[in-house]
Design brief:
Arc Repressor Mutant, subunit A, about 0% strand, mainly alpha, 2 domains
């Protein structure tokens, strides 16, 4: 490999490494709140970025010293495999909603017809709006700059349910995540239901039966 190509390859690897590290700090800053889902995002992002960074460092070392090529290729292959596994086994809650992690907070739209899933997510999913006791479609439509009727149509089209049903489903999903987290195993159902946005245990049980099946107690007893 010529000197010029080596320099270009090293610069490209360093630039990629800087971008990845900068991306991590942006994720950490945006999702640095005491929230179960956001903790999972940060932990997952940390592991993913560490393994990807290892790949970039190996590229640099391999370019500088070709004699280590065989060993570095093996390490790089393992790092790539781990990275793919992290992507495959991403936080489960990302699979339960039609959202994507985004660092773009731009929200410019004139009509609900132009509303993208990531834009709706920026007001409903990312800040966990559905966990608020005062969550209602009127306030959400104001935040989105549209009206209630159009927003109802959008939610029905995108998620196949009403606003209230979507809120309750997300709350149930969050409750299940809390139960599965060892950090909350000593909490009562009443406490967990409050953390999940339900104002009573009875409301949790009704929504749980609809969107999960069984009862919250059955889930806890199962030790899942």
């Amino acid at each position: 490999m010529g000197l010029f190509r080596k320099i270009i390859r090293i610069i490209a690897s360093i630039a990629t490494l800087v971008i990845v590290v900068d991306l991590y700090f942006k994720i950490f800053k945006k999702y640095a709140t005491e929230n179960l889902y956001f903790k999972q995002v940060i932990q997952w992002s940390s592991l993913l970025i560490v393994t990807f960074s290892i790949c970039m460092v190996i590229n640099i070392l391999n370019t500088i010293n070709a004699r280590l090529e065989t060993l570095l290729i093996i390490i790089k292959g393992i790092a790539h495999l781990i990275t793919l596994l992290f992507i495959l086994y991403r936080p489960s809650f990302l699979n339960n909603t039609r959202i994507k992690i985004t660092l773009n907070d731009t929200f410019n739209f004139k009509s609900i017809n132009n509303l993208k899933p990531t834009e709706f997510a920026g007001h409903f999913f990312y800040p966990l709006y559905y966990l608020k006791n005062e969550a209602n479609i009127n306030t959400l439509s104001d935040n989105l700059g549209t009206n209630v009727i159009l927003l109802q149509e959008y939610i029905k089209e995108q998620y196949g349910m009403t606003f209230i049903e979507l809120v309750n489903k997300c709350r149930v999903d969050y409750f299940v995540s809390l139960v599965k987290s060892g950090s909350y195993k000593n909490f009562t159902i009443d406490a967990l239901s409050g953390m999940s946005g339900f104002n009573s245990r009875q409301n949790l049980q009704r929504a749980f039966k609809t969107f999960h099946g069984g009862t919250p107690s059955d889930l806890i007893k199962a030790g899942i």
